[in-house]
């Protein structure tokens, strides 16, 4: 039996309204108990409203985390979902602690003292501010960005027009994209910086795939380590690229916030594993680890937004972690291994000061994935 209708992508909207209602009613009952002291049943009723409301925040938080794992987010919404998740966590912790305090004071009968009862009421009223901010960010995700709506999710893989000639563009806010095409090897060589390794050890080839679209083949020497990057220093960003790792043995990293050859955040693929983490002066810290089930062409996406880090493969969230932000830096990729890798496109979207109207322009498609047929 299906618990939700087909048009509802997760159960979070069904759960989240119950703790909100219970806690607002609890604060109202608290005020009534202060005014109408002769009705002694109000105090225990209020207590259990707080307890069940606090338990409801746990369900809302867990279902929200599960929803974030299956819902597609347009780039401008990532800062909002990060703030929404943080506020939801703070709200849950606050009301669990508050309910525990209310149980303790009720057991000790301290809440019968007017001063303590007023203080507890004021603290609960402040907690409603957390609920309001959390709900406001949740509403913004739905009504401003269309997150969780079936129509929005179907639009995520909207196909871009592909230029026959390789292109590279930089927007005013620092967003950039490189698209393979004729002379892909030349545009890549002229624009990307090789921060680790030597250009003479790299062979770049223009490829054409069966569907007529282009790709760049990067051929490596044995056991090479190469770090490429491009673009300005960015803080919050989404890094997407379409790559084919079928002819490669080793580890492939999308990297961002690069401060040097050994300091960066990464999404690393070494089939069948995918890892999200950070290298800081050569010391590696893994945020999360998952499993890659696909092979061949992959649409990789790494998102960094206010201490939240997410890694996607073919639009499926596989890893999610948290950490302190590194200083702003450029983005690119790192290769450690042997063989060859094909690229059809790389895109970096700045999530800072990005108008919502630009949302559809920054959706990267992986519909053109396929096998290369010959080199130019």
Topology overview:
Blueprint: H1 12-35, H2 42-70, H3 78-108, H4 114-143, H5 150-155, E1 167-170, E2 176-179, H6 184-191, E3 193-196, E4 203-209, E5 214-234, E6 237-244, E7 248-260, E8 263-270, E9 273-280, E10 283-291, E11 297-305, E12 308-313, E13 316-322, E14 329-350, E15 372-375
Antiparallel strand pairs: 1-2, 2-14, 3-5, 4-5, 4-15, 5-14, 6-11, 6-14, 7-8, 7-14, 8-9, 9-10, 11-12, 12-13
Overview of this structure, please?
This protein is of the alpha+beta class and 376 residues long. The chain folds into 2 domains: 12-153; 157-375, Sandwich (Jelly Rolls). The protein is 34% helix and 36% strand. The chain is built from 6 helices and 15 strands. It has a 15-stranded antiparallel beta sheet that branches. Strand 12 (308-313) and strand 13 form a beta hairpin. Helix 1 (12-35) packs antiparallel against helix 2 and helix 2 (42-70) runs antiparallel to helix 3. The longest helix is centred in the N-terminal third of the chain and has 31 residues, at 78-108. It is elongated. The relative contact order is 0.14. Mean pLDDT is 86; it is low at 152-162 and 355-376.
């Amino acid at each position: 039996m299906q618990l939700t209708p087909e048009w509802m992508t997760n159960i979070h909207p069904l759960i989240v309204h119950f703790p909100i209602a219970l806690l607002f009613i609890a604060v109202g009952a608290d005020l009534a108990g202060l005014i109408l002291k002769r009705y002694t049943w109000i105090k225990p009723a209020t207590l259990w409203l707080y307890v069940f409301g606090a338990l409801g925040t746990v369900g809302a938080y867990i279902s929200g985390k599960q929803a974030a794992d299956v819902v597609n987010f347009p780039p401008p919404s990532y800062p909002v979902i990060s703030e929404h998740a943080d506020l939801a966590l703070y709200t849950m912790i606050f009301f669990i602690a508050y309910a525990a305090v209310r149980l303790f004071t009720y057991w000790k009968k301290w809440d019968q003292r007017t001063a303590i009862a007023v203080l507890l009421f004021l603290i609960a009223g402040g907690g409603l501010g957390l609920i309001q901010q959390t709900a406001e960010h949740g509403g913004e995700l739905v009504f401003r960005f269309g997150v969780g709506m079936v129509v929005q999710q179907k639009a995520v893989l909207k196909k871009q027009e592909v230029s026959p000639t390789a292109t590279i563009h930089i927007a005013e806010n620092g967003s950039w994209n490189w698209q393979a095409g004729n002379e892909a090897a030349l545009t890549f060589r002229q624009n990307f910086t090789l921060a680790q390794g030597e250009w003479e050890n790299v062979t770049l080839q223009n490829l054409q795939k069966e569907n007529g679209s282009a790709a760049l083949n990067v051929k490596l020497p044995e056991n090479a380590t190469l770090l490429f990057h491009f673009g300005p220093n960015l803080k919050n960003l989404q890094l997407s690229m379409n790559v084919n790792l079928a002819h490669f043995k080793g580890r492939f990293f999308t990297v961002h916030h690069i401060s040097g050859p050994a300091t960066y955040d990464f999404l690393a693929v070494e089939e069948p594993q995918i890892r999200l983490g950070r290298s800081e002066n050569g010391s590696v810290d893994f945020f999360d680890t998952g499993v890659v089930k696909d092979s061949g062409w992959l649409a990789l996406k790494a998102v960094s937004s206010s201490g939240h880090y997410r890694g996607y493969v073919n639009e499926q969230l596989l890893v999610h972690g948290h950490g302190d932000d590194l200083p702003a830096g450029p983005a690119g990729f790192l290769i450690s291994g042997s063989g060859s890798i094909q690229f059809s496109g790389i895109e970096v979207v700045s999530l800072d000061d990005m108008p919502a109207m630009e949302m559809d322009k920054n959706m990267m498609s992986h519909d053109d994935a396929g096998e290369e047929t010959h080199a130019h």
